[in-house]
Structures are given as C-alpha cells and as structure tokens.
Amino acid sequence: MGLLSRNTTTFAGIIFGAMVLSACQTGGVLLPGPGSIVGPVSVANAAGNAKVLRYDAEAARLINAYRSSRGVGPVRVDATLTKTAAAHALDLARSGLTGHIGSDGSDPATRASRNGYKFFTLGENASAGRTSLADVIAAWIKSPRHQPNMVLNPAEDFGLAHIVAPGSRYRDYWILMIGQRRKAGGGGLSGGQLNNGFTGGFSGPRVTR
Questions:
Q1: Are β-strands 172-181 and 119-128 bridged in parallel, bridged antiparallel, or unpaired?
Q2: Of 33, 46, 93, 96, whose CA is between 20 and 30 Å from 183?
Q3: Nearest alpha carbon to residue 128 among 78, 178, 159, 90
Q4: How far, CA to CA in Å, does 12 sit from each of 28, 29, 94, 108, 143?
C-alpha cells in the first residue's frame, strides 16, 4: 500500500443485513463502563504497551449530531459492541493486518455474534493512523464508502474503540460498530445466511490503494 502523506488509512465499512445468529460467548477485551473519556487503559496480554482509549460521550455527541442532521435517530453506547470493536482493533495492531477480517479469519458478524450481540443490522468502520476522534469521525463522514454506516438505519447501538500501540504499523487503530439488536421474535434471514453489502473502501487523498 502506498501512502501519499502520513501513515494513515481508512478501511472499508461493511453493512450486514438481518441474520440469525448464535449466542456463543468468547473472550474479548474487557473495558470499564461508559464515561466521558476513559483511558488510557492497559490491555492484558497485549503486544508491547498497547492501550485502549474510549471517548463514549464525545463519540455519541459527534455521531448523533451527524445522524440528526441526516434525519435518523440517535445511537447509544453498547458495551458488547465496544468490547468487540476493541478486540478487533487490538488484533489489527498485534497482527499487522488491515481491514475487517481478523487474524483468526473472523468478520464483523462473527465477532459480534460470538460476543453475544444478536443483530438485525450491523455496520463496521475502521481506520488507522489518525490520532484524534474528530479527525476519524470526519474522515468516515466524508467517505462515500463509510458514510452509509454513520447513518445506518435502523440502528440503536454503537461501540467505538481506539487502540494506541507504539511500534505497530500504524500506531493508532480505530473501530466503530453500529447496529441494532434483534427483537424477540423478530424476523431475519433463515439458515444463518448473511446478506452483506460492502459500503467500504479507502477515503481521503492519503491512500493510493
């Protein structure tokens, strides 16, 4: 991948349609409860001295201000999506991978499912190299491939995590997950089939890939 300026890239956003999921639980990065700004928080067993940063209140403000301007309802912090986002961001930092496929081959749907988030809709945006929340949110909003996840509808929940991993490929890794849980008795695709529409790519002039 070639970079035109700083070591920065924004990965594809993915929107998944309704799906029947299992509620199998797995491990993940455990985070403290929602707060205005929580961090830095040490991550057990992380490579080097990687840390998780969270900006729940400010992220909610920025995301919901944009959603309101586009005529869609607000989203609230969800602990499961936040844990899932943090685990994938940490995995990217440790593995040197970029994008939505984890080092174990998992995709966003699999990671959400195994952490217990049974979803009706789910989107994931990822970015690396940017150092501020405002910058990464603005990049996702400006990107035609990521913007649809910012206004994903229906959606009620979000989780955003920022991993800072000095010595890793990009140092700063961001994952945003937005979705809505399946309602009791709600519809969805049968047989565990996944209907996914790729809304992602790379945004901004910094990346030539």
A1: antiparallel
A2: 33
A3: 90
A4: 22, 23, 19, 12, 10
Q: Phi-psi region for residue 189, left (φ > 0), alpha (ψ -120 to 50) or beta?
A: beta
Residues in the chain: 209
Residues 107-132: tens digit of each pLDDT = 999 999 999 999 999 999 999 999 99
Report pTM. 0.72
For 3-42, the pLDDT digits (tens) are: 222 344 444 444 443 221 111 222 222 222 333 233 333 3
CB 14 within 8 A of CB 121: no
Q: How far apart are the first and last CA of the chain?
A: 5
Beta bridge partners of 193: none
The pLDDT value recorded for residue 187 is: 52
Show the tokens assigned to 69.
Answer: 């301007």
H/E element holding 173?
A: strand 172-181
Please tell me the distance from the alpha carbon of residue 94 to that of residue 105, in angstroms, as a whole number.
Answer: 15
- With tokens 């990521």, the residue in question is 146
Residue 164: strand pairing partners: 51, 172
AA identity, residue 146 = H
| Pairing mode of beta strands 196-198, 172-181 | unpaired
